[in-house]
């Protein structure tokens, strides 16, 4: 009600200001003009304060969230999770305490030259060896489940295997058709080495990756070679025995080993060093590739 009357008062002041401007002669009536100008300004200030106060429950949290995100995107992540995603990971958020920097020292293993398409098993080898498990990339490459569906180029497009069922195509040579493998066969293979210590939280929250890093558990993930969201033009649809799937030839796997307030750190089997990427970019790539993540909890 107060806001209503103040609004009317401000409108009246505005009308009086316009009227006084018209009546002012060349010499002035400037005192009359200045008085109404001051009154109008005061009324506008009062109305603004009341409006902001009434709506502070809406704009203040949004402003604080924006500031917090700029200062630290990881700490702000819980605030940004959709409610449907937040509910199952709420206990994680309560237990999670952000650190300024956490970087784990995991073995760095290169997939080349033996495994041009073997990033997934090479990243798995890094994960298992971090926990003292003797597992070489070549042994894992031999043991990973395979989808032997032959490659066919038809009028309807490509017919090939399903990476959710096993490794698709040739892992050892780029001269033959091939693709990769997803989390399901990788988790099954990891379980033959680490049993029930393997934790496949694919489809869950990106937030959980940081929780495991805090607990000294590197995380195997599927991402892409750009480590950021890819355009739709980078994807194609294959037909498989289980139905159509969308794939990108930029699919990649790395071992996440750390984070700080800006970057996420990972061992990349394509290079002989630990790399980093902006957290937001890496998250978008991970989500686009199906939220695939595996760790080992001793």
TrEMBL record:
UniProt entry keywords in alphabetical sequence: Membrane, Transmembrane, Transmembrane helix
A Pfam family recorded for this sequence: Peptidase_C39_2
Residue span(s) of domain Peptidase C39-like: 104-269
Domain of life where this protein originates: Bacteria
Protein name per UniProt: Uncharacterized protein YvpB
Biological source species: Sediminibacillus albus
InterPro entries found in the cross-reference section: Peptidase_C39-like, Peptidase_C39_single_dom
Transmembrane portions of the chain: 6-21, 33-52
